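Re-run requested by the PI after the first attempt was lost when the workstation crashed. Everything re-entered from the original request form. Ligand of interest: guanine.
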Amino acid sequence: MQIYKAHVLFTPDRTRFEVIENGYLAVDEGKVVGVYNSLPASLQDVPVRDFGDKLLIPAMNDMHVHAPQYRNQGIAMDLELLPWLENYTFPEESKFSDTAYAERMYRRFVRDLWRFGTMRTVAFATVHKDSTRLLMQLFKEAGMSARVGKVDMNRNCPEALQESVEDAIRDNEALVAEFGEDELVRPIITPRFIPTCTPELLQACGNLARKYKLPVQSHLSENRNEIAWVQELEPESRNYGDAYDRYGLFGDTPTIMAHCVWTAGEELELMRKNQVMVAHCPTSNLNLTSGMSPVRVFLNEGVPIGLGSDISGGHDLSIFRMMVYAVQVSKMRYCQDKSLAFLTLPEIFWIATKSAGTFFGKVGSFEPGYEFDALVIDDKELNHDNYSLLHRLERFIYLGDDRHIVHRFCRGKEIHEPKV
Ligand code: GUN
Ligand code: FE
């Protein structure tokens, strides 16, 4: 057992922060035992690690990011989704047939997730099995938890990124054999999106998810041209979400759909019914001119939601910065439609931590039984005039960066900087 002493802040529900000034947080076997105002008599003999005047908060979860697009971060902002994929994204992903190139990029990617305090990641790799495997090994070496998808696609993309349905099944099964039972890093079935997957491949993906009880991730209703194209490709489907559902890829196993900018009506109802999680990616939606996702509607309807950086549609890997963007986008949306209240700070913090964390089990809170995924924030540089603890956290979220994150924990273990 271990006790950590610091100012403890977390969001047990979306309406409020729990704030324990100079609190004691007890951890046993990687899980939170309790948070206390003063040290209980029964824990007097447990070693205490004292973080002094620092903040102790849950670690971040990135629910949607493309690891192989890391080189393209912060460039190529002049096109919308479909031509952007064709001109910038597919050419970069083609390079990942070379595992030496993949290693160089993926090491940097994992190191930078670490820097920004993201201890759980749901990532797309590429179609290439060997470099996908490498990414999974790098997460494991770092001690950071991840769900990593070998991307499946077999149409409407360059030949070099296409695979046969048989190869897709074989490669996914090889990764399941190696990582299927792993505690930290597991595979996730990843059909890229309907336009790049034939019905046969989508069916094979659905079968794999069911057979091996694997989660699923893909993209949904991001861009209006994309949605129109999906309707042409799957004319029988009632909506884009239903097109996935027909192949067992929409909540039969835990499922994350990125974006959902234009989700409404029956698609929204299906997400609620099947408890499909939205990965909200505000920077990507801004950069690719996709639109403003109706996050308030998802909250009202009880659709699960988390935040994603979506590098390189998104340009920023920090989930703290993503909270700020999400709040700001919700305010612009509110300006256009006053019936959808903008997001508050406790709401967005809860979305990024406890709500997203449900995908990994009991993650993202400091209630008893939760896995101890945590960050220690040294904000003395930002706290120049005795701000309240809540304002200190708010200022760190708005103004802080990786330099203020001084310790990181995943599942109870301190995680040190991975080698690049
Ligand atoms: N839809 C299909 N592939 C992608 C991708 O790589 N990024 C984004 N933002 N949307 C996609
Ligand atoms: Fe994406």
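Saved to the shared folder this time. The radius of gyration is 21 Å.
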